[in-house]
Amino acid sequence: MKKYLSFFLKLAVSATLLFYLFRQTNFDLLFQTFKQVSPEWLTASIMVFFVFQLVSAFRWYEILKVLGFKKNVSFICRVYFIGMFFNAFLPGIFGGDLVRIFYLVKEGSSKTVASFSVVYDRAFGFLGALFLLLIFVPLEGNFIPAHTRHSIFYFSVTVLALTFVIVLFSKFWQERLGNNLAHTLTLVLKIKNFLKLFYLGLAVQVLYNIHVALLGKSLGISIPWLKYFLIIPLMGILASLPISLGGFGVREGTLAYFLNLLGEPKEMGIALGFLTYGVALIGGAVGGYFYLRGDRAKDNN
């Protein structure tokens, strides 16, 4: 019952946000924006999209390896893309993260390791986004209202600083937390492991920003490329909050707001949001292929 209530609440939030956006949308301009998409830039963006998804899958593989679950990288990539399939085509109904946990447990992982591997995967993506905000809010954030800019910057500084303090005192947490949690936490917080996973998280964020910047180029958006390294981490963080259905409405509204601050029509931001999701559907389709293959995709290694 709670699951369905959550689904309908998220649906209501997304529908409300999209209704509000569409009330202010010039649909002739929106359709014209889609009609002028450059195939060359779109193709380049799709190529970068798959690179960043493969790096994301590799990050998850490295997290699992640190936690002691050893499965070959091709299996982890397939499960990762299957999770994308559920996130892209069934948002809010069957969470892709739950599907990933299910596959790991089916292959012999403990529920603790499977669950925390996904939590850590999300966490390192979040930290990578915050690190970009830490760099690019001072460099490129002059178009954002001062109080908002300062709030974003100090939030990023605080979370990153606290995280590194926790890493430095990982033995302290090991002594005070339950065995299973302490074990998974201490493994990830070892400085060598943490830095490797942090760098991978940052690489994923950089590639994601390049992917969306190329999509923006395909639509004819003329903002400086470095602005994306501020806008997209914010968009990604807000869209990933569990308040909407697959980020619908939040993603488009965030992009419309920030691009409008930079002098672009709101329709450009809405188009970029939908195009970003459209490319994600391609990745989801790849995951759907692996899912439909079923046991034939199973690895015994």
UniProtKB/TrEMBL annotation:
<keyword id="KW-0472">Membrane</keyword>
<feature type="transmembrane region" description="Helical">
    <location>
        <begin position="42"/>
        <end position="61"/>
    </location>
</feature>
<dbReference type="InterPro" id="IPR022791">
    <property type="entry name" value="L-PG_synthase/AglD"/>
</dbReference>
<protein>
    <recommendedName>
        <fullName>Lysylphosphatidylglycerol synthetase/UPF0104</fullName>
    </recommendedName>
</protein>
<dbReference type="GO" id="GO:0005886">
    <property type="term" value="C:plasma membrane"/>
</dbReference>
<feature type="transmembrane region" description="Helical">
    <location>
        <begin position="81"/>
        <end position="103"/>
    </location>
</feature>
<feature type="transmembrane region" description="Helical">
    <location>
        <begin position="7"/>
        <end position="22"/>
    </location>
</feature>
<feature type="transmembrane region" description="Helical">
    <location>
        <begin position="270"/>
        <end position="292"/>
    </location>
</feature>
<keyword id="KW-1003">Cell membrane</keyword>
<keyword id="KW-1133">Transmembrane helix</keyword>
<dbReference type="Pfam" id="PF03706">
    <property type="entry name" value="LPG_synthase_TM"/>
</dbReference>
<feature type="transmembrane region" description="Helical">
    <location>
        <begin position="123"/>
        <end position="140"/>
    </location>
</feature>
<feature type="transmembrane region" description="Helical">
    <location>
        <begin position="228"/>
        <end position="250"/>
    </location>
</feature>
<feature type="transmembrane region" description="Helical">
    <location>
        <begin position="152"/>
        <end position="174"/>
    </location>
</feature>
<feature type="transmembrane region" description="Helical">
    <location>
        <begin position="194"/>
        <end position="216"/>
    </location>
</feature>
<keyword id="KW-0812">Transmembrane</keyword>
